[in-house]
Amino acid sequence: MNKELPKFKDIKHEMVKIPGFEDYYCHVDKAIVYSTLSNKWLYQGKGTGDDNKYLLAMLKSSVDGKRYPYYLHEAIFSCRNGIMKKDWRSMPIPFEIDHSNKQTKDCKPNNLQLTTSKGNKANKTMVINRNRVSMEIARQLREEVKSVPRGERVQWYKKRGLELGIGGRSVQNIVLNRTYKEESKIS
């Protein structure tokens, strides 16, 4: 994202603080976020996830002081609606944000809508995972990743995903025990 950015002091009066993250200002219409901790615009680099589609930053909470991963589309949605991410993610049916035009780096407010996971998946242009892996493959992936240096894991996820016929993000979710979950064994 190499767009010309305004000076923060010139547009601060048009910006709002991200709920729960008081050191970060968001200009909803321009879909930009500024950190007063680092004194710079965030979300301006390479994306994350499969094909670098999503813009992610670690934001420091003004509630508990911990850092949390926060996508640009989540920041824009929170500021536009004045609600914290945890409010829509902790509902009995957790909501997600869908990019209506399928352009995940287009985080302008008119492109974002709250939906269920099923609704979000229905708006995708293609299905990445037509295949499923066995629990044994999932265990093998969790063992293999231990020998992969942290800075090389995203590439490893992509490579293993191609080999298995699934998306790199799916490999990452398996490794992080978000899918193909295994219960902790108490000994």
SSE diagram, text form:
Layout: H1 8-11, E1 16-18, E2 21-27, E3 32-35, E4 40-42, E5 56-60, E6 67-71, H2 72-81, H3 85-89, E7 95-99, E8 112-116, H4 117-122, H5 135-144, H6 153-164, H7 168-175
Antiparallel strand pairs: 1-2, 2-3, 3-4, 5-6, 7-8
Keywords:
single chain; about 190 residues; alpha+beta; Homing Intron 3 (I-Ppo) Encoded Endonuclease, Chain A; 2 domains; four-stranded antiparallel sheet; two-stranded antiparallel ribbon; 7 helices
Strand order of the largest sheet: 1-2-3-4
Uncertain stretches: none
CATH topology descriptor of the largest domain: Homing Intron 3 (I-Ppo) Encoded Endonuclease, Chain A
Specify the overall morphology.
Answer: globular
The number of helical elements comes to: 7
Structural class designation: alpha+beta
Amount of beta strand: 15-25%
Mean pLDDT: 85
Rounded to an integer in angstroms, the radius of gyration calculated over CA atoms is: 18 Å
Which sheet architecture does the biggest sheet show? Answer: 4 strands, antiparallel
Number of domains: 2
Number of strands: 8
By CATH reckoning, the class of the largest domain would read: Alpha Beta
CATH architecture of the largest domain: Alpha-Beta Complex
In whole angstroms, the N-to-C terminal distance is 50 Å
Order of helices and strands: HEEEEEEHHEEHHHH
Helix content percent band: 25-40%
